[in-house]
């Protein structure tokens, strides 16, 4: 199977929603149709909303069966051989440093979310969000995906 080189500069010119759609509808669908045995599920499709806080999940796929082609047989695979859920984050930016910041911003919980998941007695402390950011904690939904054997994959055009 051949590969096609894509121009990162052209991908960076796409808007956020366009890049997410490209990653889901072109890159992921190409791999699913050639490597995996249907059915598979898309619990989350790209929303297309700019500035949406999605916990790092721009879209997801749940693979239900072993693939027809292994990772070793499929160059640049973005899905795993084992059945399970994978979250995808998509970033198109001009620098790796900025991409890292954008990914970390997505996967860290917002203060609103932190207050919602506060599981101790009393009111959450005023510096809860700052403490979580400095502690490097991830969003609860992402942690749940990872703890249940799922994966997190970032697609980057930098």
Q: With helices defined by DSSP (H or I, 4 residues minimum), what is the helix count?
A: 6
The percentage helix is 25-40%
Q: Measure the end-to-end span.
A: 25 Å
Strand order of the largest sheet: 1-2-3-4
> How many strand segments?
4
Q: Which descriptor suits the 3D outline? A: globular
Whole-number total of structural domains? 1
Structural class, from secondary structure content?
alpha+beta
Mean pLDDT, rounded to whole units? 79
Tell me the quaternary state: single chain
Percent strand equals: 5-15%
Biggest sheet layout: 4 strands, mixed
C-alpha Rg (nearest Å)? 17 Å
Low-confidence stretches: none
Keywords:
158 residues; alpha+beta; 4-stranded mixed sheet; 4 strands; globular
